[in-house]
Structures are given as C-alpha cells and as structure tokens.
Specification:
Largest interface: A-B, 40 and 40 residues
Structural class of chain A: alpha/beta
CATH architecture of the largest domain in chain A: 3-Layer(aba) Sandwich
CATH topology of the largest domain in chain A: Rossmann fold
Number of helices of chain A: 13
Number of strands of chain A: 19
Strand content of chain A: 25-35%
Number of domains of chain A: 2
Largest sheet of chain A: 8 strands, mixed
Oligomer: homodimer
Radius of gyration of chain A: 21 Å
Chain lengths: ~425, ~425
C-alpha cells in the first residue's frame, strides 16, 4: 500500500447535468436506482442541496469526491418516496467499483452506494404503505451515498423500532447475501459445517450469526489473530489465522473429511482449495473475487492471477465428486420478490434478537477514503458505515473496540499512513 | 439399432476362478460388493450352484452371459449375510457399463448388478439386526445379478411388509438418486418447478413421486407422446414430447422465466440448455451422460459430441447468473451414513403410501438382452426388473400396460427385432 498517492476527499460543488444520474439508463444492467431529482418537467419550487459521494474516475481513493449537488426539487413519480439518508453501508463492491472491477456500477461520474437508512420525507402518488416520518432501510443498485434520495417505495423496508440507523444501513447487502447463500443455495441444516472466509467482515459476521439460527452448525472462520476473540464470541467455532497458517490444513486437522459448505468471497486459488475441502454433497458458493483487489488501484497482475487460478469445472468432475458449485451476487439479482421475502425474514430475526449487525466504525462522507482504507486493509470487524451529515468540528471518528484490538503491527502501519495524509 | 448383431443369451457353466469375484479388489474405486463365495479358507460342505449375469467383455448385448457358477459354500465373515435374490433392478449404468462407459464397474469378467431384493438365508457373526427369513433390499457397487449373494448386513434394508420383491429391487438406485438430488442438493420447497428428463424412466418416476411429497411443485417431464398419459397420472404437471418439440420452447411458453431445478441425466448440449433454463438461484444437477449411449456398442462419435457440448463453467458466469451446478452419482458416493438415512426416509415414505415404484416389466436372467434393449430403446415406463429364477416353459414375459401403450411405429420396430432373434 505504501507509495500510493492518497488525496484527502475535498468537498466539491457540482451542478446538475455534470454527473450521470440514474435517470439516464445505465449501459448495463437495467437499474432500479434512486435519484436526487426526478426528470419530471413539473418541478417544484424549493431548491435541493445535497451532499453526495461521486466516483469521478477509476483509480485510488482520490477518485471518490464529496460533491454538493444543487438541484431543483422535483415532484415524485407515482410509487416513489423521498428519503433523508441518515447512514449508508460501505461494501467491498464499492472498493472494486472504484477500481473499475464492479460491472453493475455504471461508468463514472456516478454516485456510489447500494444501501442506506433514513427517514421518509415525502411520498408520491399510489404509495400506501409508507408515511412521512417512517424510518426505513433503502436499497439500490447505486446512488445511495447522498443526503437525499428518491427510491421506489417497494425498495424501502420499515425498520424495527429498536434498530439504529447504522444497524439499518448494515443489513441489506451483507445479510441478504449471507441469507440467500446459506438458506436458498446451500440449505444449511443441523449438524452441517461451514467455512466462512473473512469471518470478521460484514458478510462473514452476518453468515456466522445466521448459522447460529440453526442448531449444531460448526463454523470455521478465517481472520487475523487479533480478531479471533471477537469472532469467537460472535459464534465462530474454530477461528483460523489465515495469515500465519494454512487454513486447509487447520480444517483437516479438526475435520479430516472437510466441510459441507464453503462461502468464498476470494476467488482464484482459494476457490480451488474450497472445492477440494468439500465433503460429498457439499456446496461451494463463490460470491466475490476479493483476491483481485490488492493495491489501491486496479492490478492487472492480481486479476490475471485470480483468473488463471479460477476453478475450471466440468460436469464429469462434479459427478465423480458429488459436489455443487454456485455463484451468488446480489448485484445481479433482479428478483425483487426473493429479496423482499428474505428481507422480511431478516427483520423478523432482528426483532427476535437472533441477528444484530456489528458496526465496526462510522465515517462522515468527507472521510470516505479512511473508511475505504480501513476495509481494504481488513482492519474492520463488522460493518463500516458512512454518514451523510457533515463532521462537526472536533468530532472524532466513532470506533468500536475493534480499533483497539489491532495488533501492534497494524497500529504502526496506520500511524505511517496517518502521517502521510 | 438395426444392423447390429444380437446373440441370444446362452446359459454357460463356469468354474470358480474364471471370473473376477468381488473378493479380488477391483482396480477402481474400492467396492463394497457381494460375493457368492467368501475367500475364507474354512469352507463348508454343501456346494453352491448359482446363476449369474456376467459381463464378459465390452460391446453389445451378447457380452452379458448367463453363467452357472458352482462354488463351495464358504463360511460367512462377521457382519455378513447371505441373501437368496428374488429380483434385481436393471439400470442405465449397466447399459453404459456393458459399453465400457461406467467407471465404477471393474473390468470384465465381472458379475453386474447394483441392487436387488431377497430373503436372508444365513447370517454371520456379530449380525444382530438381521434374521434368517428376513425380506431385505440389498445394495452393492456390482455383483447383484446372481441367485445368491453375500453382502455386509449394513448394506441390506428390511422391506416393509406390503412391498413386493420387484418393488424392493426398484427402490435403491432410482429413489436414492432422486431423493438426494431433490432434497440434499437442490432443496425442493413449495412453489418450485422442476424439469425431469426421461420422466418415464426409473429416476424420472421416482423424482416425480418425490416432488409430490412437497406442496405446489410443478414438474415438467420429457417423454415420448405415448407415455404422456401415464406420467401425467404419476404427477407430471406438463408432459413434453422431446421427440417432436423443442422442450426449451415448450417450457418457456408455460414459464417464461424458466425453472428452479433441472435434473439432467443426458449431458452434452442438454446440460447447456438446462443451465440456460434456470431461474436465478436455480440449480442444475447432472447425474448421467445418457447422450453418450446411442447404439448398442460404444460410439466414439456420440462420446465426443457429448464431451464437446459439455457445459464449461467458470465461477464468474455462475456469479453473474446466480446459479448452481451440481454433479450427482450414487456410484461415487462412499458416504454410507447419508445413504442409510435416505433409505430409512424412503421406506417410511413407502409405508405412508407416498411413493410406490412403477414396475415396467420383468425379465428372467436369460432374457437380459431383451431387458437391456427395452431400456435402451426407451420403451419402458418405470423400472425394468431382472429375475434370477429360470423362466418356466411356456411362461411369457410379464409386461405392464406400458407395453400396450406403444406407438404403432415402436411396435413395428420390435417385431422386426423379434424376427431377427
């Protein structure tokens, strides 16, 4: 990481029309994305000033700019709601998107962000089940990193009373991904074993919690040693330090026959290893290619290595081993019904106290580079949250104990970085 | 089919030592196979005469010979039982094995057969849960096509009282395959849709019946038109004549988004089609390569075509489509615990009247060529059974109404064949 340029995020002012808004159909795939203005010609009076995190080009952290868009407040279309965003979830997809490695994100300039929570400020015609003042979770293919968004009402989900905005913003991507992989694709049942890579990450923690809802499920979780205590408390049966040990060997020592389910966000040679670790009737689910992301900018070498080591499959091999290989990516899921059902189920599990997002840290929009760096360097335990509200003078970044659990080495690395900023 | 040599099966007499017995470890993979004699040196008095169907080399129907082995009756090993076989199930694997296309079958000479039913005639030491006189289903990797077999007691399953020997012999391979695919791999749930190829075959009928145990499951089943009435009665929601229609088009007409589960015993280009037919979160399970078997003997062209058209997968494609691809083959399943649990469940479903094997026809051992031809030509609706007992003079082959449902064309083809025999 050292040696790369890092520019602090500067607040910029931007006029409408300079940036791709979701109203222009993105080149691929069809998006149900929010907009801070509607294209309706019948605009209303009050002008709308809106801070937004805009990807201005592919590259390092400096490509994500905080811009202030000043737009006329447009009338909502039928079925839409206007949400004042209180918290957004940062995802690995945005780190990849910044490097030009995330296909569902339209080309820059584009407002990033796939999930958030906030308060309904206005409702369009034909919206019956949302009211002004409702606290909601909102989802979108992109465009959530802004103070005010317009989304279809059916892409919002009322938040349980006891849920904080930070928790609400941490639910959709991580928990839907974990839920659909474990219960729609892999069919976790009592007695099964699951390998969760990056067990301290957002999906990792969600998957671990969801595994706890089924009796007698063994979770092998990889994470650096400093995070083991936390993930063990969270339900990981066997934490494994992937930095100092071969996780395949460690798992074989405990379970010589391997595991029933592997959740693989890494790609490349780890997919091969995961496939080999499967028991008969076992399921490997690939849901990312984190191995592609090494430095701050797109690395052709890392991509080639990941592609070269990609699992190549033929059905004969699958038959001879009785194994299943699946791919999952919420960004390519256009099935709203499936998503709705899973969200309802997840919010019910939250109400019952069976799941609870772990917030690693919260960063204001102007600190997005720090937020992305924290995630890139895998310092987070749980979800990294972005707050649209400007940072108050003298306010420090909220951190959980995760930050204090760092190894000395990690802390030293961060100090060096801090000096450079 | 015409133009190929067909030699009627001749009864041959064979002495011990001429044929591979399962006591010699087969070259691949380790087999839990029955033997008509044990290698124990402490042999008992009474000599044992045993009719067996032996594959004598790879090729056409004439390579399967009915032989009479005369062997000393050996003492059972601990944990073994001796079963007098009353009925055996014929499987597509044996048709492939005859052509040298089924790897789990050891090289000829070898007694074929993976499933049967009969009566326990003797039990070895340490066998506590089987008694002389018990009616049991028996499974093995090969060697079941003989009058008397020795198998480990734990590879036998007591038959429900109302179950016939023919039904018992029809259960293991077809129903375990269907059960494990639908419930272990694919997780069929209410509201799902399933494409069952060869819906009038053994696995097809088993899969259709098992789908009925879950509410509101739609079954698309391919079969030739003459079988549609029967499979519709058996639970196929939409029978499709794959001979005269494009099944992909037919399914898209009814369900434009495709299906949730495809069970694919065909391989080659049908696997590609099946993959494309899957809805998001859908599962394709390949469990055979019937497209490899065209004529009576191994066809390099058919094999090459099947291999060439084999689905080649990369995990990126799976992620972008949110799909799962699995392989299943009972012949490669060494997990006895999983098989035991599934068998117990299946026998319970039989007791409850929820599943019932459909016996297409029964052939005596000496008629094995006719039995294989019936299956090869896809004339069967349900299971083809082999009977070890010699055919009585004047006895006709038992046929179900399936035989009478033949199209005129099919009947004409058979007449031509009968004249040639």
């Amino acid at each position: 990481m050292s040696g790369e340029e890092e520019a602090p995020t500067q607040q910029q002012h931007q006029q409408p029309g300079q940036e791709r808004t979701p109203d222009e159909p993105p080149p691929s795939p069809p998006a149900a994305a929010p907009s801070s203005s509607s294209s309706s010609p019948a605009a209303e009076e009050e002008p709308l000033s809106c801070r937004a995190l805009v990807l201005t080009g592919y590259g390092g952290y400096d490509k994500v700019k905080l811009q202030v868009k000043t737009q006329r407040r447009a009338r909502l279309q039928a079925g839409e709601v206007l949400v004042r965003v209180k918290a957004c979830g940062l995802n690995f997809a945005e780190l990849m998107g910044r490097q030009g490695l995330y296909e569902p994100l339209p080309a820059p300039p584009v407002t990033m962000g796939m999930e958030g929570s906030g308060v309904v400020e206005a409702v369009g015609e034909d919206v019956e089940d949302r009211r002004v003042g409702d606290r909601v979770i909102a989802m979108s293919r992109f465009g959530m990193f802004q103070e005010v968004v317009v989304v279809p009402a059916d892409r919002t989900f009322p938040m349980p009373e006891q849920m904080s905005f930070e928790e609400g913003a941490a639910i959709p991507i991580n928990y839907l991904t974990a839920y659909m992989m474990l219960f729609e694709m892999a069919n976790v049942r009592p007695g099964k074993s699951v390998l969760v890579h990056m067990a301290a990450g957002g999906v990792g923690i969600a998957a671990t919690q969801l595994c706890q809802t089924v009796p007698d499920v063994t979770v092998f979780g990889t994470a650096s040693a400093s995070k083991h205590e936390t993930i063990a408390q969270g339900g990981v049966t066997h934490p494994i330090d992937y930095r100092t040990k071969d996780y395949v060997e460690e798992i074989r020592k405990i379970s010589p026959k391997g595991v029933d389910i592997v959740l693989d966000p890494l790609g490349g040679s780890d997919t091969q290893k995961g496939f080999n670790l499967l028991k008969p009737l076992g399921t490997l689910i690939v849901f990312g290619a984190a191995n592609c992301v090494t430095g701050q900018k797109k690395s052709l070498l890392a991509m080639m290595k990941t592609w070269y080591n990609q699992l190549s499959l033929n059905t004969m091999k699958l038959m001879q081993t009785n194994k299943a290989v699946c791919g999952f990516h919420l960004g390519y899921m256009a099935e709203d019904q499936l998503i709705d059902r899973a969200m309802r189920e997840l919010l019910e599990l939250y109400r019952q106290g069976k799941i609870k997002p772990r917030i690693d840290s919260c960063y204001h929009f102007e600190e997005v580079a720090d937020a992305m760096r924290r995630m890139h360097d895998r310092h987070n335990i749980g979800k990294v949250i972005l707050l649209p509200e400007p940072k108050k003078p003298g306010e420090n970044v909220e951190k959980t104990e995760a930050a204090d659990n760092k190894t000395k080495e990690e802390a030293a690395t961060e100090e060096v970085k801090a000096e450079k900023d």
